[in-house]
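Late entry, written up from scratch paper. The run itself happened at the end of the previous shift, but nothing got recorded in the book at the time, so transcribing now.
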Amino acid sequence: MTYLLYNRIMNILAINFGGIGDEIFFLPALISLKKEFPEAKITLALEPRSKSVKDLTNIIDNLFLIDIKGKNKYLELMKLVWLARKGKFDMVISSGGNKLISLLLFMTGIKKRYGYCTGALSEKLLTKAVPLNKNQYACAMYHDLVKPITNYKTYLPEIDVEPQEKIPNSVLIHPGVSKMSVQKGMIKTISAEIWAETIDMLVKRGKHVMLAGGPDDKEVIEIIRKTSKYISSPEFVNSQNPLTNSTLSLDGLGEISDYYGKTKSLKDLAVLIGKAEQFICSDSAPLHAAVAMKTKTYVIFGPTDDKKLIPQSELVIPIKANDKCPIKPCLWEHRQTTCDTLDCLKITAQDIVDKIN
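Output as recorded:
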């Protein structure tokens, strides 16, 4: 159903600050907007670190890079206001629970403004102040922003990567998380040594194990390469060609492929995820690409809430410690950094392999 009130919407500004995972979560809302207004152009304002989301979809026509994590946060926000006024947008949709967001949207001069309800100011300055429900899958939380605008409902992220032919008996492992989260004291995954042990156990069980990672994962990949019995073996090291994706078959066991450094973008990684029969990762952006690719995925969860970060689906399985922590999940719920004990991440390689098999 197209609302006659909005039938002249041709230029939409969407604002969503956060990491690349947040931008993938935001995609269903943008997809529904595009379905409602197929002729409209969509501009997304986001942080520079997340600009690669545009490689995953053709529904985003333009980006405004706004570095709100830098030293000049307020200058960057004023730049956004200036760009919004210059762009002559018909509508703006913004996520975020800050009480001043409604004022920021009002300053853009855009007539139709949608954001979360954060009090009396938002109700006065926004066309519609949408209730913010954080106790649901993040895609659904963001999609609530467009409920007043469209009856279209997009449940999961969709990306422009064709379905891939599966590599038989394959398990892709992406062990890393963003460097920024580690620097901020948000530990969300198991140690590199546990990842290496997991790889070795899967190879022993006859699996074709594929290792991948991005620039932020260099340190953990190096430890895995040194620690894994099979990846560090002379046979595997000598088989590797930097220009190809060499695979080593081990007599009576499985196979190993090292793709680290060979996926040059998140879209390249999504293609590789699509080729895998199974995928193991941390709570990080590759998880959300895997959801979009519909690959059977197993996710290490510790201090964060799996119910908010993965859909209810047989294709996405959380792996969690049986630690009985009374305030778990705590990260973002009760604290901004993880605790020192990290009992919630005391997950063994055996736990992971048993879950997969």
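The chain has two domains: 4-146, 170-356.
(Scratch paper discarded after transcription.)
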